[in-house]
Amino acid sequence: MNPNSEQKRIAFGYNRNSKNEIVIHPGQAAAVKLIFDYYLEGCSMDKIKDNLESMSIPSPLNGKKWSKQTLANVLSNPHYIGNELYPTIVSEEQYKLAQTKKREHIGRNGKAKEESSLGKQT
Question: DSSP class of residue 14?
Fold first, then answer.
């Protein structure tokens, strides 16, 4: 892919520079790192949401409130480990640990079993 991609919407944590390349937005990238750190430390989505809001960290749409879905989207976005378009914000190890933790959490809630059985139907 071309670093000057015409991709209109870019992930939270990034901006475009004057050459139209996707670059790290320092403030937003710090929020992304915090989200991963809190999650991997064992904080619930509610606790992460409360922490970000108490620190007045703006959400991706520049709002004062964070939603659990927005946090889940950040934790699920593979762009943060870097690729040909996006610079790295979190390590591949952190990203993989977060994905494993999310799968384990879903499993405890009984949803993973339903999803896996749906996927196996032929």
Answer: E
